[in-house]
Amino acid sequence: MTRAISLQDVSKTYTRGVRVVDRLSLHVEPGEFLVLLGPSGCGKSTVLRMIAGLEEITEGTLLLDGEEANDLVPSERNMAMVFQNFALYPNMTSRGNIGFPLRVENPGEDPRPRVDATARMLGIEDLLDRFPAQLSGGERQRVAMGRAIARHPSAFLMDEPLSNLDAKLRNHLRAEISKLTRELGVTTVYVTHDQAEAMSLGDRVAVLRGGVLQQVGTPRSVYALPRNVFVAAFIGTPRINLLRGLVRAPLDGAMTISLGKQFLRLPEPLSRDHQLLRVQQGREVIVGLRSEAVRIAKHSSARPGEVPLTGLVEHVEFQGHEILVHFDTGSQPAVVPDLEAPRPASRPSRRRRREGGVTVLGRLRERAEAMRAGPVVVLDEPAGPDPAAPSEPRLPGDLVVRTTPDIDLRRGLQVPLLVDLAHLFVFDQHGERICPAPARLPDLDE
Ligand SMILES: Nc1ncnc2c1ncn2[C@@H]1O[C@H](COP(=O)(O)OP(=O)(O)O)[C@@H](O)[C@H]1O
Ligand SMILES: [Mg+2]
Question: How far is CA 251 from CA 248, 256, 260, 275, 389, in A?
Answer without folding.
Answer: 10, 11, 18, 18, 43
